[in-house]
What does this fold into?
Amino acid sequence: MPEMTLVEAIRSAMDDELERDENVFVMGEDVGKRGGVFRATQGLLDRYGPERVIDTPLGEISIAGVGIGAALYGMRPICEIQFADFIHPAINQIVNEAAKMCYRSNGQWTVPLVIRAPYGGGVGGGLYHSQSVESLFTHHPGLKVVIPSNPYDAKGLLKTAVRDNNPVIFFEPKKGYRLIKGEVPDQEYTVPIGPAKVTRSGRDLTVFAYGIMHYYALQAAEQVAADGIEVEVVDLRTLYPVDQETILASVRKTSKALIVYEDNLTGGYGAEISAVIAEHAFTDLDAPVRRLAGPEVPAVPYSHPLQDWFMLNPDKIAAAIRDLAAY
Amino acid sequence: MDLPNPELSREMMLDIFWTMLISRRTDERAWVLHRQGKIAFHVSAIGHEAIQVGAGFALQRGRDFVAPYYRDLALMFALGMTPLEFVLGLMGKRDEPTSGGRQMPSHWSFRRANVISHSAPVATQTSHAAGLGLAIKLKKDDRVVLTTVGEGSTAQGEWYEGVNWAAIHQLPVVFLIENNRYAISSPQEREMAVKSVAEKACGLGLPGVSVDGTDVFSVYRVVKEAVDRARRGGGPTVIEALAYRITPHSSDDDDRSYRTREEVEEHKKKDPLLIARTYLETRGILSADAYRELEDRARKMVEEAIRQAGEAPYPDPEEGLYPVYAEQIREVGHA
It folds into this structure.
């Protein structure tokens, strides 16, 4: 199996789907000639032409809204929002339109649309090229929210997202684009939207994470293994709808839960996981559910020492694991 | 109005008039139902009938796509909705065709006429229209998209982005602005600095035209020209149709707080229904007897619709759970 970076796997998924289905097309700012500012769409313009790889004007409202309109006609647009930090103008379209279309029309109209956006900090992007905005979208029935943590899942999940008949918000951990590498099969495969995955088995506690935090969580689990702490790691992968079954099964096994997310703590996605565990697995717990998340500041600061202070990393996660394990 | 409409047969002109009439009589009756406490909400198209019916008839109905807004009752009638279907929606009944009782009345979705579903935040459908136009162009289909908004909604960034897209890609979309001079209580001069909404088109690089929206045959001609051009690949058009909102914004509004009765009475003299009737009568297309028959037919149809809708079932509460996702769509009841 060839090894790919995360961004190569994402590109490969789009390439496959463009090849497979003529209703699939890609649109976004600089996705054509430039091949995307992160090169996620590199080469696609040459292969599929300007009608199927469309450079859009600078308007996130219409990137989402035009995508929705085309999807209503039966197309399967893949819309790129250049940075998740820029998605806010499109929230009206995503939350009020795409998410509600099927329900409000009693199933007359559906929106088979994918919105991809790179998210997260650690790349010197400051407040507006670093945000984790997933919790803005995990509150809305009608949407599916997916965050892959590795190339295999990224390719398989994105292909599934393109074939899904609902709007899928697909956040990609940008710091992992070239950092995270992994084997990706040559042959056709998909990864289902919905199930979380146990990626490391352990008995002492469970770390729940997604995206780059999952990548770090595995490293942290390795660090503490040297101290004899056996950590189970669950990659949530699909944030909405949430896979309660896998989460609860792991907590019932380990009796301790640490949820790691890069967004700031309060009202972040980890709060929902914490609530699910508290409601359904209270008597299985040997310790309070713990959340390790970003500090309560508006967004990631630019200056390196400030950014490092904001960002979680394997060491910080390992420290939280040791702390919880000792409870 | 004095220019000929060569494509319009006498039958079609009478059909147009009938559609305006049935919309008006249904609409008036909806206000009564609201005042009787029998429905929770009504938003009226009274005064807009010429715009909406003229535009609707300019389409290949059932083939072209429509992205409407909440004031488009007469447009829905032009596209084949029946009084019964509308009244079922007013009452939130299970079998109403737009949403099965999920949306407020007049928040359209009408699959059998290619009317897409829209929301209440205004102008969000403008970029959907551009997206439909893009898809039509990509598929090389022979279709046109009509999308409507009130003039107040052209202040939204949503509107500019959608129109800009259509202009850049020369998409087959007609952007119809139903200018009734008020965004609820704010008059046009508080909404925009331009005199005509059509002027906004020049900054976006597409033609903008203004038409008397009280004259159904003028609207038909202007929209037909834009639709035909779009279908030929000649790109989008912005059309402003000027009329007046004769009623308050909705059943929850009281327009006495922001405009005089004299102003409203003055505009009632330019009632689009009266103008169309006079046009047809003076040309011998509609006789006094024929007109009375139409009125009688409309009255009976509306009363029958209200009777039937009143007896129709409400949705079961558990139906409220579905369909959030496409996987949950049941085929039953869908066109």
Remarks:
- The domain at 10-249+282-310 of chain B is CATH 3.40.50.970 (Rossmann fold).
- Chain B touches chain A through 48 residues (CB under 8 Å).
- The longest strand of chain B covers residues 173-179.
- Residues 138 and 324 of chain B are 29 Å apart (CA to CA).
